[in-house]
Amino acid sequence: MTESEIDNSFVRRWQLAAALKDFREKADLTQEQAVTELRRRGGRWSESKLSRVENHQHGIRPHEVEQLLDTYGVVDPAAREPILALASRARERGWRTTYGADLPEPFRTLVSLEGGVTTIRDFQTMLVPGLLQTADYMRAVIEAVDPAATSPIKLEHRVARRMTRQHILRRPEPPTYHVILDEGVLRRTVGRRSVMRDQLRKLADVAPEPHMSIQILPLDAGGGAGLEGPFTLLTLPTPAPDVLYGEGAVTGMVFVEDRERTRMCMLRFGMLSQLALSRADSLEMINEAAKSYE
140-167, pLDDT tens digit by residue? Predict the structure, then answer.
């Protein structure tokens, strides 16, 4: 595979791999059983090929995706058509989903990508990032953004699903996680004051961990590289390209692999890091903000 092909297909291949593996497991089939059924249906498959597809090491054509969906008994258009659309657009430079921030099954691109990252660089201007949120803060965010559309049961399900993302920071070899938060994140009361207090205490607790780096961009830093808004950079193992990730009410979820755009955001992140407080001074500000909510 050429560098250009990697650039153009990596995120979609990763997303397809996660979705197709999920469908196989829900069909209660091992890879061996799936291959046996695929061959019975006339497909040219082997266990090694299916394994490479599921481990995002091998591209897959739309007609092969159809074979897998047929084998796994995926007949519901609501589940089937988005996967086929994804397969047909697999060589686009960027991928945008408009499913909202909840990442409904099986669209778990962000979760899947985070599972393989070596470094995450995260700049946020409005909220504590999801990987560092407490359950109460997360619940308050969901209720504030979508107060009428979430029943109590669905709310708890969404919170539980989002909280599972955080396991990557607790694994034996976690990714390096560098977070820059605008000071406004500390001052914006999300939920009750006790929710904010506990959330900021959590930030203070994890800040000293060796794989973590939390910086606060003070309000008196003025204008600069952060004025265009938040973004996240995901660094994956070579030869995968860096992935730029963002989301919003208008754009939905956006994943960008274009090297020039990711390079510019990497430079912007470096500039923000220079403007932000040191780790020690940032921790002091976080602790002071937490005390203000007592």
Answer: 998 888 877 667 788 887 788 788 888 8
Q: Supply the DSSP symbol for 226.
A: T
- Is 282 within 8 Å of 215 (Cβ atoms)? yes
Residues of the chain with CATH 1.10.260.40: 3-92
Please answer whether residues 256 and 243 qualify as being in contact, where contact means their C-beta atoms are separated by less than 8 angstroms. Answer: yes
* CA gap 286, 131 in Å, rounded: 17
Return the residue matching tokens 């995901």: 234
Q: Residue 121's beta-bridge partner residues?
A: 178, 233
* b/e 68-94 (16+ beta carbons within 10 angstroms → b): bbebbebeeeeebebbeebbeebeeee
pTM equals: 0.70
User: How does strand 231-235 pair with strand 176-182?
Assistant: unpaired
What CATH number belongs to 3-92?
Answer: 1.10.260.40
Distance CA 286, CA 218 (A): 11
Residues of the chain with CATH 3.30.870: 109-292
Tell me which residue of 204, 103, 106, 220 sits closest to 161, measured CA to CA.
103
**What pLDDT is attached to residue 34?**
94
Token digits for 41?
């249906």
Q: Sort strands 119-124 and 176-182 into parallel, antiparallel or unpaired.
A: parallel
Q: CA separation (Å) from 98 to 10, 248, 255, 283? A: 19, 9, 12, 36
CATH: 3.40.50, 3.30.1380, 3.30.870, 1.20.1070. Which one for 109-292?
3.30.870
Tokens of 273: 């890091």
